[in-house]
Design a protein that fits this description.
Layout: E1 2-6, H1 13-24, E2 28-30, H2 31-41, H3 44-54, H4 61-71, E3 81-84, H5 90-103, E4 109-114, H6 117-125, E5 127-130, E6 136-138, E7 157-158, H7 165-188, E8 192-196, H8 201-212
Parallel strand pairs: 1-3, 1-4, 2-3, 4-8
Antiparallel strand pairs: 5-6, 5-7
Length: 216
């Protein structure tokens, strides 16, 4: 089972990826994680990536693609993988296709989790984080017992800067701008399935499983 998981920030990709890992026994390959690992391990590509990251620049496609290629050579991906955060652009998607061709395998599906923008904004802006212990709450979905106070340590709950409305809107706009061409690209290859992510987690997961079983 070889899957690309797509969706805007806050769509629930991480949650669904974990459930896919548990169900199918294949690894989740999150771009951020393997990028950090390559930097920590000091690989040749990791050192290149670090140079860009330290200067506050985007890591170029060829470096990201190279790190993904190295990860896909590891033994735990023999039965499949879930790519999360890659590809983000059509050139990355084309590079991925070449990598998989060299491996003698193909993608089984590109799962695009769709959530309306107003719901995404509510998910982020309703989030509260304890400034002492880091525990996370949500004013609607997981409220603390006492408003503004952490249940665990009594610390003050705050809104993180990256959860403020303008920041969230900017992140969503960037995602939409970057990935719309990619959605069309995978649709043209009959790999794309849109999943309504604005429902309970288990309902979303059952639909994903149904599609992977060929019921979609």
């Amino acid at each position: 089972m070889r899957i690309v998981l797509m969706g805007p920030p806050g769509a629930g990709k991480g949650t669904q990826a974990k459930k896919l890992v548990e169900t199918y026994g294949i690894p989740q390959i999150a771009t951020g994680d393997i990028l950090r690992a390559a930097v920590q391990e000091g690989t040749a590509l990791g050192k290149k990536a670090k140079e860009y990251m330290e200067r506050g620049l985007l890591v170029p496609d060829d470096v990201i693609t190279g790190i993904v290629k190295e990860r896909l050579k590891e033994i735990d991906v023999e039965k499949g993988f879930i790519l999360d955060g890659f590809p983000r652009t059509i050139p990355q998607a084309e590079s991925l296709e070449k990598i998989l061709e060299e491996m003698g395998v193909k993608l089984d599906a590109v799962i695009n989790i769709v959530v309306p923008q107003d719901e995404l904004i509510e998910r982020f802006t309703g989030r509260r984080v304890c400034e002492i212990c880091g525990a996370t709450y949500h004013v609607k979905y997981n409220p603390p017992k006492q408003e503004g106070i952490c249940d665990k340590c009594g610390g003050r709950l705050i809104v993180r800067a990256d959860d403020e409305v303008k920041t969230v809107e900017k992140r969503i706009d960037v995602y939409e701008r970057e990935t719309k061409p990619l959605i069309d690209y995978y649709r043209s290859k009959n790999l794309l399935v849109n999943i309504d992510g604005n429902r309970p987690i288990e309902v979303v997961f059952e639909e994903i499983k149904g599609f992977l079983r060929g019921e979609g």
